[in-house]
Design a protein that fits this description.
The chain has one domain (7-101). 53% of the residues lie in helices and 23% in strands. The protein has helices spanning 16-42, 67-93, and strands spanning 7-10, 50-58, 61-66, 98-101. The strands form two sheets. A two-stranded antiparallel sheet has the order 1-4. The protein has a two-stranded antiparallel ribbon with strand order 2-3. A hairpin with a 2-residue loop joins strand 2 and strand 3. The radius of gyration is 19 Å and the shape is elongated. The relative contact order is 0.22.
């Protein structure tokens, strides 16, 4: 089937920093999606020190969440962009150890 079976892999051992950054990227993506879709069900209402978060407002419904959750909801795309940039930077730094496979 055309277009399948192409990819990139490290020659020899994969750098530990690459594994750590990719793990953080996947965890950030999962928590971002989980917060967007399931946050309103799992975050208890009327928590102490909770404030209305504009980043989590959808369809006119506002949620009162702690400040750290609101901070993450505001910055989740920037965090994921930074982690993706680190993955690209690591691939550029270790470019001699990366090869194209079919």
């Amino acid at each position: 089937m055309p277009g399948t079976g192409h990819g990139w892999q490290f020659v020899g051992k994969q750098p530990v920093i690459f594994t750590v950054v990719v793990s953080l990227l996947l965890a950030s993506g999962a928590s971002s999606l989980g917060l967007a879709f399931f946050g309103k069900y799992f975050i208890p209402q009327n928590l102490p020190n909770s404030h209305v978060c504009a980043a989590m407002s959808s369809s006119g419904i506002q949620f009162g969440v702690p400040d750290w959750i609101c901070w993450y909801a505001n910055w989740d795309l920037a965090i994921m962009g930074g982690l993706f940039g680190l993955v690209v930077l690591i691939l550029i730094i270790y470019r001699k150890n990366v090869c194209h496979v079919r």
